[in-house]
Request: fold
Amino acid sequence: MTETPDLEQNPIIAKIRGWRPEAVAGMISFRGEVTANIYPEHLRALAEFMRDDADLAFTYLSDVTGVDRFPIEPRFELNYHMLSIPKRATFRLRVRLPGSEPVIDSVVSVWPTANWHEREIFDLLGIRFEGHPNLKRMLLPDDWEGYPLRKDYPVEGPR
Amino acid sequence: MTTIQTATGPEQTMVLNMGPQHPSTHGVLRVLLELDGETIVKADVDIGYLHTGIEKTAEALTYSQAITITDRMDYLAPLSNNLAYCLAVEKLLGLEVPKRAQYIRVLLTELTRIGSHLVWLGTHAIDLGAMSVFLYCFREREELLKIFELVSGQRMMTSYFRIGGLALEPPVGWTDRVQKIVRTFPSCFDEYEELLTKNRIWIGRTQGVGMLSAEDAIAMGVSGPSLRGSGVDYDVRKYFPYSSYDEFDFQVPVRTEGDCYARYLCRVGEMRESLKIVRQALEKIPPEGPIKADAPGIVPPQREMMKTEMEALIYHFKIFTEGFAPPPGEVYQRIESPRGELACFIASDGSPKPYRMKIRAPSFVNLQALNKMVVGHLVADAIASIGTLDIVLGEIDR
Reply:
């Protein structure tokens, strides 16, 4: 999973690089899916840029997925799966967050659909989203302790 | 509760608890409706009653074992779930599935789509007071379930699609049963449309109700027929074809009105189109040929080979004791399930178990739009709006 030459020709990546070169931590191409690793502080601004830019038009956010890479640091990984209906294109943004106090800007103001995705990640992985309108537990009861999708949380429940 | 101004002075809104056990919620869903008289001011959706931790469970199973729990998410379309998961693992492995298996997959998932839409139509109609449609729809669905049972041995929890192909060779004569459905179903659809499409009560309950504009639908991530009822033609089968869908000739019904009636017409039109695909698939499926990819170590060997070849026996033992390990990496595979964009995200760390398996459930995302659809409408319209989103709570809560 290293940078391959076909990534250099990718127009979406060229756009992101041209927008703010310092935001990009790396690019990955795997099985035809292109991922841009970006630094968390640029996420919301980049999301807005990618939604509003006429050549990209990523107006549709399909999914947000959190992955726990425990014990690797930075421990948490968020994958934003974006879709551009007019351009028939897909793209994935990835940010990494530290294990202690994982916090990131919410993208609800960019894509309202992120509301429930972020709430679910907060509920199951314990990542906080700054600026989320209603960040509370969703699938689990309000008084649940721990975050079940974390890797240090056993399948059978906390012990 | 909030204070509102009425003709007789300031008044408080009322909070009405709809669900969790309510016949129109199609599962276990609780909606907190804030009401001004009978008009909805706000609809707060509470989910999680069916949360069973399927994604966490999958992390403890091998790739082959995890197929069985995908059935249990969207229990009205188990084959679509199987397909999304299997395609994701196949993408991870870089595995090519034989054409014959691909066509059979297409045929069965389209039958699943019809079956799922039949349940939707029946329950939606019964919610809005049309009893007989429900009985007809379930009568026809029974025929579809019989085909699933014939092919996989199970009516609902099929697990028929496996990594690299199909579980079993379909039984002799199964295509005759499908032919019969292709022949008889169009008149059934006519029958439902006769009962509903020009029915004044049906039109009164659905037209102009649960309005969703194209902009709102895209912003809320709505997909499937619920999105196409708002004038956006996004269908994964056309945009990102998988499993040889690009070889089939079919239309995607789109309506621009954005109300419950438009979504109803989209789904009925979709059932007819699905039948068209089934008809083409029947012609395409070769009578003989492999149904599993030639991938030793991933696809279990034939029983006969295990009796004569030592490698086959070793592979069999290895697959069922430790599984197989795809290369590290992440894939996101989307398909068009009856409810919309169903996607499976798998992160592999190079071990025989999925490091992280996430399902992007279309119902989960579509349900978010409920608040937009019902505010300013009556309580009775909330029932129509929940019905028209075609949610399955098993998939929402996972």
User: Anything to note?
Assistant: Chain B has a mean pLDDT of 88. Chain B touches chain A through 39 residues (CB under 8 Å). The CA atoms of residues 173 and 322 of chain B lie 37 Å apart. Chain B has two domains: 3-46, 54-397.
